[in-house]
Write a structure and sequence with these properties.
mainly alpha; 13 helices; disordered N terminus; 222 residues
């Protein structure tokens, strides 16, 4: 999609490196003019919606994706990004519907599953959110991010033993990920497993992270 946007901006005389809010607004104006001439051009509408997202114009982006879906009800880009915009607007029921519709078409899309899990969490549907996170781990057993997503939710719910297990699995798959390692330390501290937490911190330092960057966690172990 980014490549298409840059090509379109170049075609209509806008700098291909446009990144500032003013330049994004200029691109929206140009795209609106182009859409008026070709209202059924899905590519142009997707490009305008992307520009709206870059300007955090969530309502306009939702409207544009709605136009696209009236032209092509199974357009995956429109379903996915409309769901994202709905979450920004806290329209969680609508986001859930779009993610679920997307997944009926493309059932093994990692980001859509994560988006749905996040939406269910925001809706306070704990059981459904856990079911979705478990499904993600089952579908993507080689993804560290899958285990990390479940661990983060377990941490939010103060289920620290389960979180430690999932942080370990994430680290098994990405052993150099400092963020995962620190998250495991935090869970160990909350469980009172101070020696394990210190050993994990020392391992992080040995792998190259300055000890000073970990001061707040070392301080909790004094």
């Amino acid at each position: 999609m980014r490549k298409l946007l840059l090509i379109t901006l170049f075609m209509y005389g806008i700098c291909a490196q446009a990144q500032t809010p003013r330049e994004w607004r200029d691109s929206v104006s140009v795209l609106i003019e182009a859409i008026n001439k070709a209202p059924k051009n899905i590519s142009l509408r997707l490009l305008k919606a992307e520009a709206n997202i870059n300007l955090q114009q969530w309502d306009y982006a939702v409207q544009e994706y709605g136009y696209v879906l009236r032209l092509d009800e199974q357009n995956l880009a429109a379903l996915f990004f409309r769901a994202f915009c709905h979450t920004q607007l806290r329209h969680y029921d609508l986001a859930k519907f779009d993610y679920e519709t997307f997944l009926t078409i493309q059932p093994e899309h990692f980001e859509a599953h994560l988006g749905l899990a996040h939406t269910l969490q925001k809706m306070g549907k704990k059981t459904d959110a856990f079911d979705e996170l478990n499904r993600i781990v089952q579908l993507f057993p080689d993804s560290a991010d899958a285990f990390a997503a479940r661990a983060a939710y377990e941490t939010d719910l103060k289920q620290y033993e389960a979180a430690v297990y999932d942080w370990d699995e994430a680290l098994r798959l990405q052993p150099e990920n400092v963020e995962y390692a620190i998250s495991k330390v935090d869970a160990l501290i909350r469980l009172g497993r101070r020696q394990e937490a210190r050993e994990q911190l020392d391992a992080i330092v040995r792998r190259g992270t300055p000890r000073g960057a970990l001061k707040q966690w070392y301080d909790q172990l004094k």
